[in-house]
Design a protein that fits this description.
This protein is an alpha/beta fold and 334 residues long. Helix content is 16%, strand content 18%.
Length: 334
Amino acid sequence: MRYQAAVVLALILFWGYPHLTYGGPAGKAARSNEEAKTRVEVRHFSFPADYPLGSLHMMGNEKDGTEADDRSIGPAKGAVSLTVPPGQTILLDLNPRCLELPERLKNIHTAGINRLKMRYLSMDDNDHSHCDRALQALPEFKDLISLDVARSDATDKGLSGFKSLPSVKHLLAYGADLDGSIFKETQKLRNLESLFLSLSPIKSENFKYLSALPHLTELQLSHLNLEDKDLIFLSQCRQIKQLYMFGNPKITDKSLPVFKQLTPLEELDIRGCGISLPGVLTLKNLKLTKLLLPVKRYRPNEIEELQKAFPKTLVCYRGEGVAKDDQIFFAPLK
């Protein structure tokens, strides 16, 4: 009995951690994502042997993943076998060299890669199409649940292959070169749960297509120069739980009726918006867990009003002025 217990313990310890080997033969395709949720699996990848396409990481299965649970595994180079515990996903972070020569993405073994990170900002106009050319390989990543093209030259045209991947739930495209025309074919994007579009040149007429995404629960629309009329589509997004509107000063109290219709809303960021304190107080019936307020100097009686209106909400507010460290750092040289 002691021997059997020791064997079981050894197997648990062995399978509980990632194992990476290089040089072995490329194996069969990875099991489905559903199986991966309940059992340990070994995934086999085949990358070019003479140069790394990027790096491999293991991350949790929640939302877009976080830096905290990001574990670096090693370079995406040669034959790789990786043990993946339940609830974990594999991220391929492509390097700039690969994006400059996107043909290197052809004929690689993509099954079992759940997240793809492709960030590239060109230094001149001749490089502007690199990211879009690399995105041509997107339809090959059948197990993808998350695509990260934030701070890149990716365009709506380059993301056309995204529509053939119904398993994708998270799109990080803040700071990308998107105008939003990709969302016109919402029928093919119906599984999207989180969408980060901050700092992208989204055209106002394309926001209406987002209301047809039935599973969209997290939406980031910061620094898009939005106006009240641009938020009408939100009244049809009754499933939104997290809404980030930071840095849109033209959003005023006129948008409050739209916010009030978002009854599942848990987190709301209206920093940098033109919403008044009396307007904020009218949102007290929402069951918010976190509320980030416009930056201003709040008087003690105003803070008291906020605490009474939102007793179970983490209310974040910040006074005007400059932090002491910033004052020192940016002070004139003497």
